[in-house]
Design goal:
Blueprint: E1 5-9, E2 22-26, E3 31-41, H1 46-61, E4 65-74, H2 78-88, E5 92-95, H3 101-108, E6 114-117, H4 120-126, E7 133-136, H5 144-152, E8 156-159, H6 163-179, E9 182-185, H7 188-196, E10 205-212, H8 222-225, H9 230-233, H10 243-251, H11 253-265, E11 273-277, E12 283-289, E13 294-298, H12 304-312, H13 326-329, H14 343-354, H15 356-374, H16 382-393, H17 402-422
Parallel strand pairs: 3-4, 3-7, 4-5, 5-6, 7-8, 8-9, 10-11
Antiparallel strand pairs: 1-2, 10-12, 12-13
Helix pairs in contact: 1-12, 2-3, 4-5, 5-6, 6-11, 6-15, 10-15, 11-14, 14-15, 15-16, 15-17, 16-17
């Protein structure tokens, strides 16, 4: 067939929004045969910069088609945003911080590039007509409305930030399903699960296993964590990430959020989700099927591969990802997480079972508490204590719309700030 192997695959995962009926093509390097237009929410962050790197590499490899940057956004980093605009010539550049608009306009200077500002600008570029793919890499809850807007437009959503699925997992997956949007995770663990699940049907899955590096403190006891400094918490042993995500890794909150995310993204009960510590960070997650087969996805700790897979799925092509040489790794080890010491992870399983507004409170309280820790106002162990306090005061609601979720989010942040102001944490 001249190197063209086309087949239509029925995937029985239509409950979630990621299992759409897709035509798979392996055509020797020509990706889809036409240019794909991409919007990147958060282009100046780690994921955003890697997404641009991946697209550069893919465009070099393609003999046709490829990727065109239609719109990019940032919150504050106008200097880098302007440089990206000069290189990629997008139709639209958005800066969420309105105070940075004049500076950005002066730096860009190109009258052909439209400049938007304010939080609402993220929604505008997320639903941009003609753009097929939206990469969501905005840290925190700020990108939730934009992600929902893209889902309503039926776009392919490459989701790198956990918060949309944590805060509004049920709402987002339902919106995607109803509008024909495709949700593909960029988070390395969920990308691994997504890839492994191609080996079977959703109803054949016995359990999914999220792996975790364990962060910098996996060998510490609860008493030792009392004196952890900001500098120590930011020294991740494997991944190079932003400050907030790095602190989440140190508390294992990142894994707690991933449990909630996986519950909605893959339409799994919490009882079928487990976590294993895997310090080498080579196996990014695993799926066990009912026949006992365990399928894993492996690779070096490099975000380029999951980003690329989200952009090119269901096709695989050469790109920017580094190659894994197992003989140089030597060994792969695993251990159970200590749920008593890292209480955030235990809370994550509880919140995942509840769903609804509980997850919004959980996420918002954590964001606010991490801010307080980074500012030097509280101890490392106070992060989880503040989260527990917010959850204990929260009146849980299972079914909630976007306004109710955002109200729960705001109230939790206020409670954290109020608690820190009233107590002597240091």
């Amino acid at each position: 067939m001249n190197g063209l192997d086309s087949r239509v695959r029925e995937n029985d995962n239509s409950q979630t929004g990621w299992g759409m009926r897709l035509t798979e093509r392996n055509n020797g390097g020509i990706l889809w045969g036409m240019e794909k237009k991409v919007v990147i929410l958060g282009s100046t962050g780690s994921i955003g910069k890697n997404a641009l790197k991946v697209m550069d590499a893919l465009n070099e490899h393609q003999r046709g088609g490829g990727f065109k940057v239609e719109a990019i956004s940032a919150h504050n980093n106008v200097e880098l945003l302007a440089k990206q605009a000069a290189k990629y010539k997008p139709r639209i550049v958005a800066i969420a911080n309105k105070e940075k608009y004049a500076q950005l306009k002066g730096l860009i200077g190109d009258s052909k590039i439209e400049i938007l500002t304010g939080a609402e600008s993220l929604v505008e570029i997320a639903e941009l007509e003609g753009a097929e793919i939206v990469v969501s890499a905005v840290v925190g809850s700020a990108g939730l409305q934009a992600v929902l807007a893209a889902a309503k437009k039926g776009k392919r959503l490459a989701i790198a930030n956990k918060e949309p699925l944590v805060i509004a997992g049920k709402l987002l997956t339902r919106t995607a399903r109803e509008n024909g949007a495709l949700l593909i995770p960029v988070d390395s663990e969920h990308s691994a699960i997504f890839q492994a699940m191609q080996a079977g049907r959703r109803e054949e899955v016995a359990r999914i296993i999220l792996t975790s590096s364990g962060g910098p403190f996996r060998k510490m006891g609860a008493e030792e964590l009392e004196n952890v400094t900001v500098k120590q918490a930011l020294a991740h042993p494997v991944w190079d990430m932003g400050k907030k995500i790095t602190i989440d890794s140190a508390t294992m909150m990142n894994k707690a959020l991933e449990v909630i995310e996986a519950r909605w993204l893959f339409d799994m009960t919490v009882e079928k989700i487990e976590v294993l510590i895997h310090p080498e960070s080579i196996i990014h997650s695993l799926v066990e099927f009912v026949d006992g087969s365990v399928i894993s996805q492996m690779g070096l700790p490099d975000m380029c591969l999951p980003i690329q897979y989200a952009l090119t799925y269901p096709v695989r092509v050469g790109g920017a990802a580094k190659r894994l040489e197992l003989e140089r790794i030597g060994k792969l080890s695993f251990e159970k997480p200590d749920l008593k010491t890292f209480r955030a992870l235990a809370l994550g399983f509880e919140v995942a079972k509840l769903g609804g507004t509980a997850a919004a409170v959980f996420n918002a309280a954590n964001e606010a508490a991490v801010e307080q820790f980074l500012a030097g106002n509280i101890r490392f162990t106070n992060i989880v204590e503040l989260i527990e306090g917010c959850l204990s005061k929260h009146t849980y609601k299972e079914e909630a719309g976007l306004d109710e979720l955002m109200e729960s989010d705001s109230r939790a942040r206020e409670q954290v700030r109020g608690a820190v102001g009233q107590a002597a944490f240091r």
